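Hi U.,

Before I forget, here's the chain from the pilot set. I'm dumping it here mostly so it's searchable later in email.
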Amino acid sequence: MSLVAELARARIGATFNFYRDGEGAELRRDRLRAYLEARADAPALLVAEAPGYRGTRVSGVPLTSERQLTGSGPAEATATIVHRALGETGLTQDVLLWNVVPTHPHLPGRPETNRRPTRAEVEASLPFVRRLARGRRVVPVGRLAHAALGGAYVRHPSHGGARPFLEALRRIAAHQPIERSRMDEQTVREAAEIHARATVDRDYPTAGSYLGDGMMDAAGAVMKEMPRPLTGSEVTSVEETAGGYTCRIRYTGESGATDVDSHWADVDGSPTIVGLEVVEKS
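Structure:
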């Protein structure tokens, strides 16, 4: 099933799924499908918090207003700032825009409002983010996205953050060229964080997508050494080695903690786990 079809069927907490419900839902699905196809080769995924009632809820395209698409309809300040900054930095075609929570969180009975997503809504949405993050550099925008995804923090452009947001994109464009096959410490750390969180969340398709050929048995053996139930994870170190990088991940649970070394190599342009071993249990 396609991502758009899965999203249209999703029920994410108390959010409004405008890809399934409301006038124009089919058009919004078509727009999202076309946008994802147009950015299929974008090497970076820029992830904000959630759709706003004047922006994505109307247009169906992440961080984009109806006015930007058609010249009419509502405009949204955040969408205007984001697209202007991407244009000024030359990153428009290199960035796929998304939200941690892809459906609209609003106050009860007040659809023309925005609210912060709940933790449960964030967790329910992560499989969509992880699917799009595969093989891309993840750039979280705002504190909620940073807390959910890790990686380098970029300030949200709203409430006086437009200039810091633009400066952050300029640094990315000028000093950290984004290439789909790029294999560096930051890219590996981001991949390890996504893999680890997926393991804790029991999102095994996402966690397993980072495993190289022949790694399923090793992963199964490591899982048997994990505390039960798993409640958290942290990438505690990333060290460059002759063949790639080694990430140490600490998994915590009610029964203790387990430190696991994951060995990463560039396989077909993506950071991939080629070795796993338990190094300490407490």
